Amino acid sequence: MQAIMYLLRRTYINKLKRSFSSPVSIIITLIAVLSIGSSIVFAFTAKRSGADVKFAETLIAGIVLLIGVILYNSFLSRDSGILTMADANFLFTGPFERRTVLAYLLISTAPASVLTGLMICFYFPYIIGSALTAPKFLVVLLINSLLFACIYLSYYYIYILDIEKPGLKKKVRKVFLAIIGAMAIVFVIVLFNTGFDLKITAQKYFTHYLYNLVPLFGWTKWAISSLIAGNIIYGFIPAAVLLSAVIVFLCLALYNINTDFYEKTLEDSISLQKLLDDKRTNGNVDARSIAKLKDKASAVKFNSGAGAIYSRQQLESNKVGFGTRYREVFMGLIYVAFGLMFSLEFNFVLVMVGFSSLTMSLNDSWHRDFKKPYVFLIPASSFSKLIMSVLPGMVKTLLSGGISIALAGLIYKVNPVNLLSYIFVFASFVVLFIFAEILTYRLIGSGTNVMAVTFMRMLFAMAACIPAVIVLVIITVVSNEMPDLPAIFVSVISTNLVFSILLAYLSRGIFESSEIMD
Questions:
Q1: For the residues 106-114, what does the mean pLDDT come to?
Q2: Does the pLDDT of residue 288 top 60, yes or no?
Q3: What DSSP character marks residue 234?
Q4: How far apart are CA 295 and CA 134, in angstroms?
Q5: DSSP state at residue 319
Q6: Is the dihedral of CA 202, 203, 205, 207 positive or negative?
Q7: Do 96 and 209 lie in a common domain?
Q8: 323: closest CA among 76, 40, 5, 16?
Q9: Within a domain: residue 465?
Q10: Shared-domain flag, residues 178 and 244
Q11: Is 171 a residue whose pLDDT tops 80?
Q12: What are the b/e assignments for 194-210, b being 16+ CB within 10 Å?
């Protein structure tokens, strides 16, 4: 057990050392820590008004349910492993008993759960308002950590049992989706009874006492809302006890499991290592590269030259599951639904959809093409290979974001001309951001610390917006008044397109040295 604790301790010490391994890493780490810390401090020191109780409870329930379902479904839909390759090699080759390895899993769940819970709780002070004090925030963080500990531990348990009983994980996923489907049907029934008013439906659905009985997600919402309302005895304590009881049960069940999971876990650690390597070298994870490819025919026209890159990406996209292929569209529709449920303005929904689309574009396949030496052997110019490499991801981002924005505009009854202009503005930023990212690879190369690449990518993305802002300021100064929407749209779109062409030109030689990028 001392060796296990030493391994855990060294793991986090080494992660901390890597954060301060170079001047750029030190600057980025300090900026991140100061930004997060100052945001949390500001949330409790700034004057906050008390949020509507039902609104806060509904929003908390929706966020917890959304993140929990996505995380759980992601775990159950692929074999991503439960140990890294380094940990698996150390634990499985050392003189450790099965229970010692299982104890390592149990102990390592705690920090992972706290970090995930912190990501969810980060916005709660702004959502809940003055009712959430600093001590209550720590308790809310604890409750969310318990929720994610339940999710992680249950996945570990199902993963190991699936080795002994193949197909169990698929059955559990079907049951899980059936439960979520039943909850969705109830939501639709309530929606019908409220005259299709999403806001009233969401409040009735998530604030009803029966929702508190939903395992894990309902209990978490019950505990948090009861804590905020001061209902400690009949609300917070029962919910917290239920979550704690599930964790104790899962820990005992996992610790006493007798299945031989060594071989399967070691095999799947390769997939998990692939994820980590992607993150370390590229700063992102290519979701399609780790998705399970289906054995089915795909009608893809295979092109020669640079077009072969486009054909390969299309073939990979056609062979992944429906959820993985259209996940960007689903996320955009979820943001639109959230905007309607919580009576958010169209501009806010537009920003959420745009930010989600641009963030998810960081995981497109073209990031990996820059790390593949065989691309150098394709008989085509570097610029044509560059365009064909980013074209599938660019089209996917444009379509998914455009569909979500168009749907939101129709629901919010935005003027058709303005709605079309919003879509074109979004498209111009997509092109601009993608070529800004490409230029970071062109200037920095692949051997640089991933933190530096990520930092430069953020700087280039923000700097790419500056020209459009400058043009707007110049127009405003010259005309002595704020330009109307058509003038803003035309200036932003034209400026973004001009600088996109400039960035593409500066990045044209990125594949000329791809044979030595690895």
A1: 89
A2: no
A3: I
A4: 52
A5: T
A6: positive
A7: yes
A8: 76
A9: yes
A10: yes
A11: yes
A12: beeebbebbbbbbbeee
Give per-residue pLDDT as tens, 19-37: 676 676 677 667 767 777 7
Residues 81 and 219 in one domain: yes
Query: Same structural domain for residues 256 and 381?
Result: no
Q: Compute the average pLDDT of residues 111-115.
A: 88
**Same domain membership, residue 418 and residue 321:** yes
Per the structure, the count of domains in the chain is 3
**Does 302 fall in a domain?**
no
Torsion angle of C-alpha atoms 480, 482, 486, 491, degrees rounded to 10: 70
Range of the domain at 8: 1-38
291 touches 309 (CB < 8 A): no
DSSP state of 362: G
Average pLDDT score over residue span 396-409 = 89
* CB distance 85 to 270 below 8 Å: yes
Buried b / exposed e along 31-40 (16+ C-beta atoms within 10 A): eeeeeeeeeb
Q: Tell whether 57 and 33 lie within a shared domain.
A: no
What six digits make up the tokens of 96?
Answer: 């450790």
pLDDT the model gives residue 448: 47
Per-residue confidence at 516, pLDDT binned at 50, 70, 90? very low
Long-range contact pairs involving 177-186 (C-beta distance under 8 Å, separation at least 24): 177/73, 180/69, 183/214
Helices 134-164/168-193 angle, 10° precision: 130
**Residue at 307 is within a domain:** no
Taking a C-beta distance cutoff of 8 angstroms, is the pair 112, 300 a contact?
A: no
157 confidence band (pLDDT: 50, 70, 90): very high
Q: What is the mean pLDDT of the chain?
A: 79
Are 231 and 332 found together in one domain?
no
Which two tokens mark 395?
């089209």
Same domain, 5 and 31: yes
Q: Which two tokens stand for residue 183?
A: 């909850």
Residues 454-507: pLDDT tens digits? 666 666 666 777 787 787 778 777 777 666 777 778 888 888 888 888 888 887
Enumerate residues 6+ apart whose C-beta is below 8 A from 114: 141, 145
Residue 299 has pLDDT above 70, yes or no: no
Dig out the tokens for 11 from the structure. 């793991």
